[in-house]
Amino acid sequence: MNGVDDLYPLYLKMLWGFLAIVIWQTPWKCVALWRAARNRHLWWFIAVFLVNTLAILEIIYIFGFSKKKKGKIAIDEQWQKEIIKGTSKYRRHKTKVGRNKADE
């Protein structure tokens, strides 16, 4: 047999291993990046985006550092509900030109 033919099963195993790693790491990385962006943690976002640690760094961030304060969450959720309903007192009113009065 040829030496290349002997390596075919090894390549197949490596391919399946690579796919397993990608399937494991992708959801963790997506959640960690989303939370870092949502919480405005720029340095965590950069670290999670650039460093591949088989989801270890992502899991540490998600469960250790990405939690918001309860008061901040309640305020943000209440503000979002008011905006959706159109009852927020912080709504900006459009002028005829399309600019916001608050920008002037």
Label this structure with key terms.
single chain, 104 residues, mainly alpha, 2 domains, 4 helices, 68% helix
Short structural summary:
It is built from four helices and no strands. The chain has 104 residues and is an all-alpha fold.
Topology, please?
Blueprint: H1 3-38, H2 42-50, H3 56-65, H4 70-85
Helix pairs in contact: 1-2, 1-3
What does this structure look like?
The chain has helices at 3-38, 42-50, 56-65, 70-85. The longest helix has 36 residues, at 3-38. It is mainly alpha-helical.
Order of helices and strands: HHHH
Gyration radius, in Å:
24 Å
What overall geometry do the principal axes of the alpha carbons give? elongated
SS element count, helices? 4
Residue windows where pLDDT falls under 50 for at least 5 positions: none
The N- and C-terminal alpha carbons lie at a distance of 79 Å
Into how many domains do the coordinates divide? 2
